[in-house]
Amino acid sequence: MAATPPSFSPSRTTCASLLRELQMIWDEIGESDNDRDNTLLQLEQECLDIYHRRVEETRTHKADMYQWLADAEAQAANLVSSLGESTVLPRVVLGKGSLKQQIATIRPVLEDLRSKKDERIKEFLKIKSQISQICDEIAGSGQYKSVTDSDINQSDLTSKKLGELKSHLQELQNEKILRQQKVKSHISTICELTEVMSIDFMKTLNEIHPSLDDSLKGTLQSISNDTLARLTGVIHSLKREKQQRLQKMQELAKLLVELWDLMETPTEEQKEFSHVTRLISASTDEVSTRGCLSSEVIEQVEGEVHRLNVVKASKMKDLVFKRQNELEEIYRGVHMDVDSESARQILTSLIESGNVDLSDLLQNMDGQIKQAKEQALSRRDILDRTEKWKFAAEEEKWLDEYERDENRYSAVRGAHKNLKRAEKARILVSKIPSIVENLTARVKAWEMEKGIPFLYEKIPLLHSLDEYIVQRRLREEEKRKYREQKRLHEQAAVEQVALFGSRSATKKPLCQSNNGNTIAGTPTGRRLLTPSGRHGTSGGKERRESGRLNPIIPVNYVALPKDDSVSRGN
């Protein structure tokens, strides 16, 4: 675009004035015309050079402006592309508007795009710095590498790329949170384990990583793979140590209980170690009491076990004989044969010889006691039935004596109790055959199972039962003979009364009974004989019933048929 020629009014007037002043100076100097012409030509040439130079500079400036416009348009296009913006750039049409106007139009757009780029770069730097920091924490390098502009691809600053970085950052932040939670959980587990075993918690954490100490304010806890692996390893190690200590404590606790039982330690003394005995049946996860598995507690329990072992050695002889007493009591309780004197002599010899371990001896005796209890349990049912048989036999004996007493119905104190007892005894005696039969069957079954005879008071019970059966049969035979003799005697007495009643006073010795009692021939005597005379002519049933009225005639004993159902129920 051509520049408007400058106005010569002020500048030309100045030049003319200067030229006249120069002519005057030359006149005074006396310059020649050639010199004056050369000087003027020279001045004119210098002016032309100045004009040419200025024109050239103006052309260069114009070219620079065109170049700037081109660069600005290209830079704006690059910014729009890198930012992913949808900004529409103003397109400048040649010949419409001056270069300065075109520059003024595009400059604000370019500055706005540059400002957006700077803001976007800051966002990228911030996110990339956070990503780099979290990656360093996970890697555990311990050195944070700062992010600079050169680490950012400025050709791709789009919102999409920024969103991808934010998503990646979010994933890393979630990973960091999970790792922090794992670290916190592991620290909590280590704290619980160290508390149970009284191990220095802070020292353990510092050995893993110094940053795990909460007392260090402003220090980020390490969440690196190495730290997590160390935490996991320490937890496994502590759990294994806890398991080993618990097993050792349980073994010591069982020894304590055994020693307490051996020496019959009072409950009050046992309470001192109740926190130890409670661990016998506890699992590893159930043990959480502070210091219950500490080295000090284990040493204390070991010391107590050692002390009790020393005491046990001094009391072992007493314990052995106490076990022997217990064994004898079990045998006596179930009527088993035991040679106490011989057993005690053998035990004394073993202890004094020193050739036997007293602990093994006690264990052996415990086994004998256990076996004796099992035998006693297997004999209990038979013993109960034996006691019932013994009681029934005693009642049978008493009933025989009672029925032989002709004064049993006399009005004396306690007669009604004897009557009631006799009724119950008759019922029980009637069951004796079934009791003996059932007991014999059970004894035979027991002996077949055990392969040894069933001894009762050092005598085979079957022999006692057989002997009792034989004796009972003999007694039954004697009673039968006695009843027959009585019946004949009573019949003879009745016949004598019927034939010689008016001369009974002179025949007095003939009426003397087998028991040495004499029946007088007075009216009182006749009243006593009248019922027997009446019943003497009746059948056997009436004679049995008359036993309740006539004190002279005993009641015939007739064993009732055994009641299988009742006897089996008993």
From TrEMBL:
GO cellular component terms, semicolon-separated: cytoplasm; microtubule; spindle
Biased composition range(s): Polar residues: 511-521
GO BP of this protein: microtubule cytoskeleton organization
Record carries keyword DNA damage: no
Chain residue ranges for the region called Disordered: 508-550
Pfam families xrefs: MAP65_ASE1
Localization (cell): Cytoplasm, Cytoskeleton
MF-aspect GO terms: microtubule binding
Record flagged with keyword Acetylation: no
Primary site of residence: cytoplasm
Extent of the signal sequence: none
Keywords in alphabetical order: Cytoplasm, Cytoskeleton, Microtubule
Domain of life: Eukaryota
Protein family (similarity comment): Belongs to the MAP65/ASE1 family.
Protein's name according to its UniProt entry: 65-kDa microtubule-associated protein 5 isoform X1
Gene behind this protein: LOC106764261
